[in-house]
Structure prediction request, 557 residues.
Amino acid sequence: MDINKLSDQVYVSPQISADDLADLKARGIRSVICNRPDGEGADQPTFEELAQAAGEVGLEMRYIPISGGLVQDMDAEAFGDALQSLPKPILAYCRTGTRSTTLWSLAQANTMELPDILSATKAAGYDMKGVVRRIANGGKTPVDQEDAAYDVVIVGAGASGIAVAASLKARQPGLEIAVIDPADAHYYQPGWTMVGGGIFDAEDTVRTMGSLIPRGVHWLKSAVAAFEPEKDAVILDGCRVVKYKRLVVCPGLKLDWNRVEGLVETLGRNGVTSNYRYDLAPYTWKLVSGLKSGRALFTQPPMPIKCAGAPQKAIYLSADHWTRTGVIGDIDIGFHNAGGVLFGVKDFVPALQSYVDKYQIGLNFFSNLVAIDGPAGKAWFDVSKPDTAVARVEVEFDMIHVTPPQSAPDFIAVSPLADAAGWVDVDQATLRHKSFENIWSLGDVMNAPNAKTAAAARKQAPVVADNIIADIKGRAPVSQYDGYGSCPLTVERGKIVLAEFGYGGTLQPSFPSWLIDGTKPSRLAWLLKEKILPPVYWKAMLKGREWMATPEKLSAR
Prediction:
């Protein structure tokens, strides 16, 4: 175990295991602070597991999770409070120890001299030069001088960010573009449903981020702390200032696991799973393939969520497996949907309802998961039917697939870019910000009323790229987004209802009905999902090859 000393009372280390706790106790450590969020790595023990083991050996534990690369002022304050209240000596850990060291450095800003802080962190093996200005300025962010400047800055290197970077480079190779994202890995999230259904391997849905950043695009491996749109500046964690001529904002959305009481403590065990996390999708298949009888619950929170059909996909693939193995008659399947309809576009409901009937799925509308007790196998739902008082209902389960509540990331919601609900405020056709003319947004984080899917981002990226190039040339926007989204609903292994639609639920099929009728289950649509779309994602969309995504010219308005 690699333990590094910051002071006589505080130590930091990379990820620890339950087996390390007795050794820490023997070394004199009395408290442990976890700065690593659960689920960041597939082989990472959860905080709850470590806290239980810590209690058994007489150590106190505190959970202050920090997303990779982003340490906010309130996090440093919480860390400082923990240093004051916990028994000492204290060990703090994250993936490498860097986040813990950063927190300590910020917490000491008003009690130690800057050279002493830097000396201590350097001796421990951590370079804090990225937060020097923040320490020296007490958390104040100077924006009068940039650390770097680019023609286009893109916040987020998910599907949207890399696709729009590649599309811009394809149109104007000489552009100086920077992509800001702290993540080491990039995920093909549409594949996680197939992992949970035992069809894909999880490892096939991930690539290293560095391998996907387009050639000639700068990758700033950091998190965004704030925006200063009036000064054309993005403030990175550590107070680095990046200036831009044009900004694209597409960091995705936030999976808010903590909004369901007790959920974080039991995810990945006790029969509680979710295809919305890379490390949990294989557990979904383990539960599904192992369940022979009992009650299986599937949940869907209030909109908006990414891929509104994903909660149902998990149900249908699970039920199909239970049908094929002859145990479905012994399994009580319940779908608890906070909404009031099976699917938001009525044209696809008959086909989906036929599978609900086939699998004898119990539909529970206006039913929102609010709490869960994994060890007891119990979940609580608030049922809020129209014109009826909210009722709290308890339901027992043997397995439960949870779709987490979702919202705009905190640094977006509190920024000048956000609307009243916290989403980036754009024109739904041009995807240009309504208040700042040199800012665009796409993907899950913006407020256009479209389905939040990877297929939507595939259509949006060329529109944004076209309109940015037009703006560079001094022209008005030239392309528009029509709200297209696609949701391949896996109703059974080998068949898909290919839901494609735009703004207002208007059907927008990509294929003639004689080839694929999107309102009916199709084997060809399954082939598209299983064999064609993954390579299209990796080799076309993320490379600037806009297959079936030519931007629509802007209509006169």
About this structure: The chain has 15 helices and 28 strands.
